[in-house]
């Protein structure tokens, strides 16, 4: 599946989201992106998501980040993100906390192996 220039693929234990260089996370596109992710998760019967992106721009306000965290939690996802991005440490913490406070989990990692270990996938 493709959406917004990112590719979503179903693997045996997880959903893989691959973002191209220069991918931009924008608030207006998040409902569509989350819907596509939800569809893939439902097809796979899996709630574990690995997001990979070499250079990602994030155009989200603090309110947008809270809404994204809420959306991730509503889907009951366990999401590991491995990407270079321009989010501040405070923004990363806000997203992780917003999801966690609503029952979802999002963590950012420096490498794929640590992310896979956290997701408990191969």
- Amino-to-carboxy terminus distance: 22 Å
In N-to-C order, the SSE pattern is EEEEHEHEHEH
Query: Could you say which overall geometry the principal axes of the C-alpha atoms support?
Result: globular
β content, as a range?
A: 25-35%
- Uncertain spans: none
The CATH architecture assignment turns out to be: 2-Layer Sandwich
- Strand-pairing-aware structural class: alpha/beta
pLDDT averaged residue by residue: 92
Which fold name fills CATH's third level, the topology? Transcription Regulator spoIIAA
Count, helices: 4
Largest sheet: 7 strands, mixed
What is the CATH domain class? Alpha Beta
| The named CATH superfamily | STAS domain
Radius of gyration: 13 Å
Range of helix content: 40-55%
How many strands in all?
A: 7
- What's the structural domain tally? 1
Keywords:
7 strands; alpha/beta; single chain; Transcription Regulator spoIIAA; 122 residues
């Amino acid at each position: 599946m493709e959406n917004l220039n990112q590719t979503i693929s179903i693997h045996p234990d997880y959903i893989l989201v691959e973002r191209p260089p220069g991918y931009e996370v924008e608030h207006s596109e998040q409902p569509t992106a989350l819907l596509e992710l939800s569809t893939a998760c439902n097809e796979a019967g899996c709630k574990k998501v690995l997001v990979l992106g070499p250079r990602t721009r994030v155009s989200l306000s603090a309110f947008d980040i809270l809404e994204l965290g809420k959306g991730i939690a509503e889907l009951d996802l366990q999401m590991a993100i491995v990407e270079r991005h321009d989010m501040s440490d405070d923004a990363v913490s806000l997203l992780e906390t917003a999801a966690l406070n609503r029952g979802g989990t999002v963590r950012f990692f420096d490498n794929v192996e640590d992310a896979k270990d956290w997701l408990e996938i191969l």
